[in-house]
Sequence to fold (572 residues):
Amino acid sequence: MAVTLGYKNVYRDPYGFPKWQEQGLPIRSIPAGLTSSAATPAGPQDDPSFKGWGMLWTLLGIFAGGLALNLTPCVYPMIPITVSFFGGRSAGDKPGQLGLVLHGLCYLLGLALTNSTLGVVAALTGGLMGSLLQSPLVLALVAGVLVLFATSLFGFWELRLPGGMSQMAGKSYTGYFGSFFMGLTLGIVAAPCIGPFVLGLLTWVAGMGNPWFGFLIFFVLSLGLGLPLFVLALFSGQLQRLPRAGGWMLWVRKLMGWVLVGMAIHFLRPVLPDFLKILLPVTVALTAGLHLGWFDKNEANFRAFSWLKALTGTACLVMATLWITSAVMQGPGIVWHPYSEQILREAKTQGKPLIIDFYADWCTPCRELEEVTFHQPDVVGLAGKNFTMVKVDVTKGGNPYHEELLKNYGVKGVPTLVFIDAEGQERTDLRLVDYLPAEQFLQRMRSITPPGK
Amino acid sequence: MKKWTSIFPALAAMALTVVFVWYIERPAVPKQATWDDVVAEAKAGGYRIISTTELADRYRTSPTAVTMVDTRQDWEFRTGHIEGAVNFPMEPTAWARWRRAGDLEKFLGADKDHLLVFY
Fold:
């Protein structure tokens, strides 16, 4: 490359450093930790993202994240409810334009308040908030609700507020409190669904231990989440008068229904037995693909529709194939040791660096780390050769030994990966609390690999 | 049933996926570059080859007359490098070559006749 830049005397030494070192020629090395940022983790008060303009940008980013959460199917069930609640209301006692805005705001506020409670609880307990939110019981409940809504979208029953309830909304709850209460209820429905997507945020908030920040962050997040619903609420009165746009609308409803079923399975996966973990998603994807692509009878008056159906169906089938082939082809993973003082001592005497993985089945980034990063051949190779890999499984709480470890290492949530160098010192700058792709994980591993190995 | 004809491309796409996944994930042994490969690459790139012994000779006569550029990753550089060498991490990809050309020119300086040794 230097040649194209016009340099004349360009040489390459193909044997490079290893041969140079072999011949005993002068070499130099930089001790690890000198050049890399060995800064101690900053507390929330020192964190630049919480000062002046930094704070504003952080909150804006979180607001955008909340908006992005609307792309997850968590909001699907809320759409028809919002429409029927506000649509029914405006048909009933027609609050003015300003009144409608105020009602929408109350609704948004209620929604935000439930989610902010989540943030405050996370900050106050500072513990494993995820385990509470992701216990098998809660997971099964959420999955059940999702499937229920899915059957509605498939057209087995029509989703609308029970007559009594809309009557109440129209009469006794005419106050803004009615809208507020509605938002509050929906927030409770949505929170466990959104939980997994914001697990990293929860761990972060828990780590700061400041309830005020916890409240603020989740309040802003839910404002972002609720904004489209707010707009929907404003227009829901008109929306009901829109004519049905033909068969393709019904097809889109079925598509949303399948997405919800997929979601339900995604939630249930951690508590499923091993063989179902692959089998169930694949079966659903296959069924969804055949249904949406070919069995569905809906027709539309534009030609592209049949293409769209076939493409969607094909995409589902390909996804199923991808999962099952990847599962079959997946190579060996990292061999983990359970945590024990003896393993730690052995690693130290052998001069091996150590990685402790605080893991739980119900945590999505943990599983992603396990399934992707810890199955990557280079990671597996390096870990097997130079590292002692230790896993602490905190899926089931209540193990006093584990509780003590969590406290000793200052673990605020999962995943947490603790890197300990060959001398037995923790490298706090390397500590990991989120998913990391294999390439970057390798870099962290290499930075504590002893030289010459 | 006319609409069922589109199931055939779908099946083909599934078969393609299987092949693709197999190709990506198949266990592969990285190829060891032979001396001929190195020479051919040098010819294509327009640079010359220097042996470690010759480099060491030149280095001993005048360490400042030769600039040694270590193109490995910084963690490799940190764990051990030739004394006096400078680190310019490069991935061996066309993308990296294109992206970092400007940086390299700044890094190497204006003296186009200086002896440069990459490793």
About this structure: The beta strands of chain B are 48-49, 66-70, 81-82, 86-87, 115-118.
